[in-house]
Design goal:
This protein has two domains: about 150 residues, no CATH class; about 120 residues, Serine Threonine Protein Phosphatase 5, Tetratricopeptide repeat, CATH 1.25.40. The protein is built from 16 helices and no strands. Helix 10 packs antiparallel against helix 11. The longest helix is centred in the middle third of the chain and has 17 residues. It starts with 5 loop residues before the first helix and ends with a helix.
Length: about 270
């Protein structure tokens, strides 16, 4: 891999800006740039979970970040072109193209939150690589966040009859809670209560992320809430799920939860 010459990279980003309104030319230029900076001799540790299971380039982290920053101005100025380019990038089989699609969507103003949400809803309707999905939820959601439309969209996903939509909604909620002020947590517990009670296995990974964030930010309130859910259920599965959440809590809160789990098991004769 050539050493990163920032002057050269800025010139290459300028070529992308010049092709901004021509998606096919933009994609061709993008792959040429990414291929130029790929670390072909680099071999990641096979014991580590890869960031993405999509095709991807082994890039220095700053390359894609600088490209995204360089596209902020044209993305904000040429909004219709940005929407068209984002759609073309999302159809590309490489992770970096999808990450860039999410990035340029995030550069759009709040006034286009409806259009960005329509694209996000379309894209998440199909199975997605988890890394691409997380990037989309984190970056592509910015116009909707500015417009105050993101949380209602997350609520819509959570109330969907589709398990896939619910799963995406839980992941989006987990990401949202990381940034949400503590004063804005009202109603969150009632949103996730049904998922704790039903115990759908396919939702457990993203549900646990929500509980983890809540436990880290409001441990006492979250522990009290879980005790309430436990008391309202005769299902032994809730005991297993709450045991899995104990590690998210401070020792005192975890000890109190464990005591409640043992009491529940004693009452309902479970192990």
């Amino acid at each position: 891999m050539p050493a990163i010459d920032l002057t050269r990279l800025q010139k290459q980003i300028g070529e992308l800006v010049s092709a901004f309104s021509e998606p096919a030319a933009f994609l061709k230029t993008l792959h040429e740039i990414l291929g130029f900076y790929e670390r072909r001799a680099y071999r990641p540790n096979r014991e580590l979970m890869p960031k993405t299971f999509m095709r991807s380039y082994n890039l220095p982290a700053q390359v894609l970040t600088l490209i995204e920053i360089g596209l902020k101005q044209p993305a904000n100025l040429y909004q219709e072109e940005t929407l068209r380019l984002a759609q073309a990038l999302w159809q590309d089989p490489y992770y970096e193209a999808r990450a860039l699609a999410a990035g340029i969507l995030g550069h759009l103003p709040a006034e286009l939150s409806g259009e960005t949400l329509a694209l996000i809803e379309e894209w998440i309707s199909a199975p997605l690589d988890r890394a691409a999905l997380q990037t989309l939820l984190e970056k592509g959601s910015l116009p909707a966040r500015l417009a105050g439309a993101w949380f209602p969209f997350v609520e819509k996903l959570l109330s969907s009859p589709s398990t896939r939509a619910q799963s995406v909604g839980l992941l989006a909620l987990a990401k949202d809670l990381e940034q949400r002020p503590l004063t804005k947590y009202t109603g969150i517990f009632s949103l996730i209560r049904p998922f704790l009670q039903t115990g759908e296995e396919s939702l457990e990974l993203n549900l646990s992320l929500v509980v983890k964030t809540l436990a880290q930010r409001t441990p006492n309130e979250t522990a009290y809430f879980l005790k309430q859910v436990l008391a309202d259920s005769s299902d032994s599965g809730i005991e297993r799920r709450i045991r899995g959440y104990l590690e998210f809590f401070p020792p005192d809160a975890a000890a109190g939860l464990l005591k409640s789990v043992k009491n529940h098991a004693s009452v309902y004769k479970t192990k």
